[in-house]
Each structure stands twice: as structure tokens, then as C-alpha cells.
Write a structure and sequence with these properties.
Blueprint: H1 29-45, H2 51-73, H3 81-101, H4 105-124, H5 131-153, H6 170-190, H7 197-221, H8 229-240, H9 248-268
Helix pairs in contact: 1-2, 1-5, 1-6, 1-9, 2-3, 2-4, 4-5, 5-6, 6-7, 6-9, 7-8, 8-9
């Protein structure tokens, strides 16, 4: 007897149901990556009127770029039509007012378009989960920190507000880059590259180096060394969060907590 909802073909077994196409990427950790630069920027700017639109356009641009990449490179590109139609209006409605208020963002968009072409090249070669492609994402996220600070500075012309790139921004930018690269290495060493001990060793070495880098950045810019405290914890997690008991969901929660501590350290320093 055929179960309800399981149609059959003549001479064949049940036809499997086709899962509805996703509207959001399944890279859950990327959402925390997107939030980190904006949160760190706010420690410098405080609240400003365009912040909600900036945050919404930035976060929605990630699933939109994922859908556009899939539409151009996937074996079944039509499954990305729904997310394209879902996210494009969000990005446009949130982003156009920001672009009108800050025309210099046109140059920033050209830069991000170039980085997206790099992502597209990796996806075309079926290497979208490679370390190199992940590091491009880290670069995109880190760049968003000074961009957000620039938007908050209120410059309305066509020339980017390079004055925001002062020494006080060095520690937040370094903290963002070090935290995200460390997270990429650590998570890869536990999941996709768990059989390659070089990733585990590299993750630990980078975590220790990160403490030194942030400590030096703080010392050179006169920022409290308190900002390095979360990176000491990140170094400890590179050793302690290991083994088969650490499933992806638990690893993700630890990484999220670590990124929250990074923001707190920068805010308090």
C-alpha cells in the first residue's frame, strides 16, 4: 500500500519528495561574522541614524551574493531564483537610502564587487569552502568595520572619509581580522580538516600569535591591554575545544561567545 503523500511510478518505488529550495545559506557561522564588524564599529561611532539601514543592507547582501553565485555556478541554478527574489528587494530598499546619503559608497561597492568576483571564481571551481575563499570573506567583513565608521562620520560627498582611518581604529580592525581568521582556522581544524593535524597546529599557533598582535596594537595606540583578554581565552579554546565530543552546534556556540567577548573587550578598553 502506498503511503499518502508518497506517489509512485509504474514499476518503481516511492518517488522521494523534493525538498523546497532554501532561501538562506546553510553557513550558519557566517551570520556571526557579519555581525562582528558592525558591532565593533558601533563601539567607535555609537548609534547613528543610518545604522539600522546599514546593518540590514549588509546582512541581507550575504544571502543575496550567495544566491547570485549559485545562480551563475550551480548545477541546478533555478533553485536560487527564490532567494534572489527574496533578498534583492531587501538590499535595494535598505541600501539605496544609504548610498544616496553617502555617495562615496559607490567606490566601496566597486571594491566589494571585485571581492565577490573572487568568491565567484572559487565557486566556479567547486572550491567555495576552501580556506582561501573563507579568508576572502574575512577580508570583506573586516573592511566593513571602517566603512561603517565612515558612514557614521557623516561625510556626504564622493570622496571617502579617509580621516576615520586613524590610530584609534587600528585595534578594532586588528581585533576583527584576528578573531575571524582564528575562528576560520579553529572550526576547519575541528570539522572539515579534522584529519589534517596541520590545521590543528596552525589554529593553535595563530591563536597565540593573535594575543601578541592585539597586545602590540594596544600598546602602540595607547589602548588598555584589557582588549587582549578575550584573545587569551580564544587561545585557550584552541586547545580545550577539541575532540569528537565537540559537534558543530556546540562549536558554533563557543565561537559566537568568543566573538561577543571580543566586542566587549574592545568596548571596555
Amino acid at each position: 500500500m502506498t503511503r499518502v503523500g508518497s506517489p509512485t511510478r509504474a514499476g518503481a518505488g516511492p518517488v522521494p519528495r523534493r525538498r523546497s529550495d532554501r532561501v538562506v545559506p546553510d553557513q550558519h557561522g557566517a551570520w556571526a561574522f557579519l555581525a562582528l564588524p558592525v558591532a565593533l564599529a558601533v563601539t567607535r561611532t555609537g548609534w547613528f541614524a543610518l545604522l539600522p539601514a546599514v546593518a540590514l543592507a549588509w546582512v541581507a547582501a550575504y544571502p543575496l551574493s550567495w544566491a547570485a553565485t549559485g545562480r551563475l555556478t550551480a548545477r541546478r541554478p533555478e533553485r536560487f531564483d527564490r532567494p534572489l527574489l527574496a533578498w534583492a528587494p531587501v538590499v535595494l530598499l535598505a541600501g539605496i537610502p544609504v548610498l544616496i546619503a553617502r555617495p562615496w559608497l559607490s567606490w566601496v561597492l566597486l571594491g566589494y564587487a571585485t571581492l565577490w568576483l573572487v568568491n565567484l571564481a572559487f565557486a566556479s571551481g567547486r572550491r567555495e569552502r576552501s580556506l582561501a575563499n573563507d579568508l576572502v570573506l574575512v577580508g570583506e567583513c573586516t573592511l566593513m568595520l571602517p566603512v561603517t565608521v565612515g558612514i557614521g562620520a557623516g561625510e556626504r560627498g564622493w570622496v571617502p572619509p579617509v580621516a576615520v582611518l586613524d590610530s584609534a581604529l587600528a585595534v578594532p580592525v586588528a581585533a576583527c581580522a584576528v578573531a575571524l581568521v582564528g575562528s576560520v582556522l579553529h572550526v576547519k581544524s575541528l570539522i572539515r580538516e579534522r584529519s589534517d593535524q596541520r590545521f590543528a597546529a596552525g589554529s593553535r599557533a595563530f591563536a597565540v600569535a593573535g594575543v601578541i598582535v592585539i597586545g602590540l596594537a594596544a600598546g602602540l595606540t595607547g589602548v588598555s591591554l584589557l582588549v587582549a583578554a578575550p584573545f587569551v581565552l580564544l587561545a585557550a579554546r584552541a586547545w580545550l575545544v577539541r575532540g569528537p565530543a565537540w559537534r558543530p552546534a556546540r562549536v558554533g556556540l563557543v565561537e559566537l561567545a568568543c566573538l561577543v567577548l571580543v566586542v566587549a573587550g574592545v568596548a571596555l578598553a
